[in-house]
Amino acid sequence: MPVVVAAIAVVVAVIVLVVLFKMVWRVAEPNEALIISGLGARSKPIDGVDSLGFKIVTGKGTSVLPGFQVARRLRLDSRAANLEVNCVTQQGIPVKVRGVVIYKVGDDFVSIANSARRFLEQQGSMDGAIHELFTGHLRSIIGGLTVEDLILNRERLTSETRGSAADEMSKLGLVVDSLQIQEIDDETGYITNLGRPHAARVASVARIAEAERDQEATQREQEALRENAAVIRDTEIKKAEYEGQVSQAAQQARQEVILKETRNAELEAERTEKRLESEVRKPADARAYEQVKLAEADREQRIAQAQAAATEIQLRAQREAEATRLLGEAEADAIRRKGLAEAEAIKARADALAHNTDAVIAQQLAEQWPEIVEAGARVFGNVDNMVVLNGAEGVEDMLAKALTLGGAGLGVARQLLAGMNGGGQDGGGRNGSVPSTPSLPTVPLETPEKD
Amino acid sequence: MIGKEGRVTGRIGPGLVGEVMIAVRGGVEAFYAHPVDPRDEIGVGTIIVVVEYHPPRTVYVAPAFGA
């Protein structure tokens, strides 16, 4: 148990020691300075200068005896104070300037001591004091500068700032890091007008440059277009040449084809001609020749036939002539003999007539009786309807009369004969003349000529 | 402080408060600067040497390399 108590006591003691140490030991951060004042808090004299009467600690820790010593922190950070000043420049131009001053407490012990003495309890009001201070200084600075310097000559501005504020800032233990003019409000338009000539010049230069560039661009563009056109033209020309060559070649090819086709057609025509010649003309010639030959043969045959026929006819004619002559002779002989016989007959009849006329006439009539009756009956032939009165007697009567008429005719005939006999001596010669012998017909003999 | 070299950031000359940047205590701080010879003019960018130091932040300087 005593061990545990001892341990706890040790722990408690350690804790108490730590707490005590934390209460006593203070550490200064890099951006702050510890200002320690109180019992025994005296800085060592530096370079024989009098002590400050308080101790400044930066960047390390130190013990502060609670109750006897007091430690306060002074921030060494950068601080910024905004400035806004209505003032007049060297040229008498009223401007409204807004700016900012960036400052800090100096890092050396002298500056820290000065600042600590002035601002340790009122670090918050530092900006206000600086604002007031720098407003006045800025007014005097701007009063010594022109607007052009204000805008352009930053070195002049900082230089003037240093010149006017250096001593006071040193008194306050502050360091000015930067003074910046943020904005200049120019009510009279001075700055605007200041920029105008330059702006106009720049604008004119810009316009000139733009115009020149535009011109140049247009020139280049046109050149490019021209070159393009030239290239296109060359291309077109080349293309046309090539197309011409191609079409020429095609035309040549076509011509060759046409020549070939013509040649083919000619050959075809020749072939057709030959074929026709061989198929049509030769056979036709052959047929014609055949027909001619046939015709010749036929003609010769017919000539031969005709000659044969002629010969035959001649021979036949000769034969017939001879036959006819013989026949004629025979006929003539026959006729002569017949004539002689008739003459004798006639002579005998004449004798008979002379001696017995009536008998002859009767004979003649008897011989001719049917014709006579026929002639008499012909009268009645034209009668369609004959009404014979008196019955059969009537018919007999009529026939008797007709025969009487014939008898009358007989008498007439006898008279005629008598009349003939009266002049019979003259006409007898004529009646009894013997007809002369007819001459034999002659048949012309023709020999058909050969064609 | 005396004998340190620095660089001019604000023109130093008669009637002007110049500014120099000097490396001290691991940092670089700006100090107000005046010429040792009141007639000297030291342009921006010149290397100077601190001849005199007036606390808190004023130094008197001379050009470091002759001139």
TrEMBL record, chain A:
Annotated segments matching region Disordered: 420-451
UniProt-listed Gene3D superfamilies: Band 7 domain
Alphabetical list of SUPFAM superfamilies matching this protein: Band 7/SPFH domain
Residue ranges of coiled coil: 208-314
Residue ranges of every copy of the Flotillin C-terminal domain listed in the record: 318-418
Biased composition, class Low complexity, residue ranges: 432-451
Domain Band as annotated: residue spans: 27-214
Subcellular location(s) of the protein: Membrane
Primary residence: membrane
Signal peptide boundaries: none
Record key words, sorted: Coiled coil, Membrane
Biased composition (Gly residues): 420-431
Recorded family membership: Belongs to the band 7/mec-2 family. Flotillin subfamily.
Protein name: Flotillin family protein
From TrEMBL, chain B:
Record-given protein name: Uncharacterized protein
Highest taxon, organism lineage: Bacteria
Taxonomic placement: Bacteria, Bacillati, Actinomycetota, Actinomycetes, Streptosporangiales
InterPro entries (alphabetical): NA-bd_OB-fold
